[in-house]
Amino acid sequence: MYHVFDHMGIAVRSIDEALPFYINVLNGVLEDRYTSEAPGVEVHVAVVRTADNLIELLEPTNKNSPIARFIKQKGKGVHHIAYRVDDLDKAIEDAKEKGVRFLEDTLRTNARGRKLIYMNPASTEGTLVELCSYPEN
């Protein structure tokens, strides 16, 4: 099974303040912007494509959202990296067989149809890693 780099999630206090850097300096293009108020998510998202990467800017919608807690604990910056797989259920099963633990409550389909789950950072040497698949997969 392949694991292809899909995107990087970056926690920001304000998407409006962060966007100029990604658009004007990195020559990115704003591809999408949406809000997810799902419990345990609660985030504004701006999707920016640079020449060869996809970046999700993540702004908390309230002080109790996971992104707000992340910023409070670690500050702004890289929140997670995501890898696209062809079959998310199989990828989870394969990883579990290798001893990887998951944050089971993060398994969901986002507002744009991407199915995803986060690995427990204890299994990834401290990095929050998302596995995801898309409806066309």
TrEMBL record:
CDD domains: MMCE. Keywords: Isomerase, Metal-binding. Residues 4-134 form the VOC domain. Its EC number is 5.1.99.1. Gene3D superfamilies: 2,3-Dihydroxybiphenyl 1,2-Dioxygenase, domain 1. GO terms for molecular function: methylmalonyl-CoA epimerase activity. PANTHER family: METHYLMALONYL-COA EPIMERASE, METHYLMALONYL-COA EPIMERASE, MITOCHONDRIAL. Belongs to the methylmalonyl-CoA epimerase family. This is Methylmalonyl-CoA epimerase. It comes from Sporosarcina quadrami.
